[in-house]
Hints:
mainly alpha, 5 helices
Amino acid sequence: xxxxxxDLWDSIFTPGTTPTLVRATHYSFAALLITLVxxxxxxxxxxxxxxxxxxxCLWATLTWFIGELDKMKEExxxxxxxxxxEVEDNVIDTEERPEEPKTEDHKKDD
Length: 110
């Protein structure tokens, strides 16, 4: 068990997702949903039903997103390209740089 926490601590300093971080995410959401279901069954409060639905949707969305990241890593590995370099280059290339406003001197030259 202590190895899990050591790996979790190390994953904080590792870029991207690690299996330990994904596992910790699933454990956290499972504990949250178990708690919310127990509260739903004991209190019959509609707020807990809504919170359970929201937490379930969030967990499903997060699981989908992690799967998409894994697919992207596999595609990058097939192309033999480092994942982080290509993503960073793509982000830098697509950034919009604001155009400098023309002053009176520049307008005369045009």
